[in-house]
Design goal:
By secondary structure, the chain is of the alpha/beta class. It has eleven helices and nine strands. The protein binds zinc ion.
Length: 313
């Protein structure tokens, strides 16, 4: 073959290679560009949704509607059934008497608010440090050594309403391991961590921090402007959610869209180059929570204590 044909051969091989390694639009019913070169041009205008490329706004909206619909009807998440109740854990560790646990439970029942740990503290039966240590043991994760205010800017990646709903606080981010360290002031929610990992494309590592510390830092965050968070709802009309999302996507032209459900929220993150906009749909009360199985094993051994079934967590 003459040398001057070589560039054409190389070009054809390269095109075949790219076609094999970069599939076209993720929508099977897509009627958009069909040839490789047309699709290649479309890559400059298309968007990734959950890691799958969609060539046109219509394709993205169809896929987005399907995803929102799926998230919207997901059944409630199963609560971890195997955690030893906090009160009994503290009794086992000699931090409380059984009578004190009963008194705290009665106060909680009468007040109809607050976690059992909060009432144990309020009634003066144990210190916040004791409750935090027991909480860490209950969830099999460490106690945060400190909540460094300067590190809390990483919290801007997660909508404030979610941080408040789960009483969690991003403490630090380690770029070398792409790990976000998140402290919980109440229960450690592994389903929430899993959703955050999917949306932020990072690993998460939970820990437990004193409840009042988390509340104080969330209060501080509430005073800060958060122009990248946009919240809607309460609502249950996923077609409306899809219309709102599509409108933002058309306006912002994001490179990538990721979405997930966390408790009573559907969170969409629209990434535009180095910045991102968070759309948060607060679901109306009758909507169920998703089934997301905890992805981490219980790290601490669970002692068997009789009569634990009637003590609330
Ligand atoms: Zn398409």
């Amino acid at each position: 073959m003459p040398d001057f044909f070589k560039p054409l051969t190389w070009s054809r091989n390269w095109a075949q290679h790219r076609q094999q390694n970069r599939p076209g639009c993720g929508l099977t019913s897509c009627s958009g560009p069909q040839t490789f070169w047309q699709r290649l041009r479309r890559r400059h205008t298309g968007t990734f949704l959950q890691g799958v490329f969609y060539c046109r706004p219509q394709c993205l909206e169809t896929a987005l509607t399907a995803q929102l619909s799926r998230l919207h009807v997901l059944a409630p998440a199963a609560l971890p059934p195997n955690r030893i109740p906090l009160g009994l854990l503290m009794v086992a560790r000699g931090k409380l008497t059984y009578i004190e646990v009963l008194a705290a439970l009665e106060a909680q029942r009468r007040a109809r608010y607050g976690k059992i740990g909060e009432w144990i503290e309020n009634l003066g039966f144990a210190t916040e440090q004791d409750v935090t240590s027991a909480l860490a043991l209950q969830w099999g994760c460490p106690v945060a050594s400190s909540a460094v205010p300067s590190a809390i800017e990483t919290a801007s990646r997660i909508p404030l309403a979610l941080l408040e709903a789960f009483q969690m606080l991003p403490l630090n981010y380690a770029p070398s391991t792409n790990t976000l360290y998140i402290a919980f002031g109440e229960r450690v929610d592994h389903a929430a961590l899993y959703a955050i990992e999917k949306i932020l494309d990072c690993r998460t590592q939970p820990c437990v921090a004193p409840r009042k510390t988390v509340v104080r830092h969330l209060e501080h965050l509430r005073q800060q402007p958060r122009p990248s968070d946009v919240e809607f709802g309460p609502m249950n009309d996923f077609a409306e959610m899809s219309r709102i999302s599509s409108s933002y996507i058309a306006r912002l032209n994001p490179d990538e869209v990721r979405l997930s459900r966390l408790g009573r929220f559907i969170w969409l993150r629209l990434k535009v180059r180095t910045s991102a906009t968070n759309l948060l749909f607060r679901l109306a009360p009758e909507s169920p929570r998703p089934i997301v199985r905890p992805f981490r094993p219980v790290l601490s051994p669970r002692p068997q204590i009789e009569g634990s079934s009637h003590i609330t967590k």
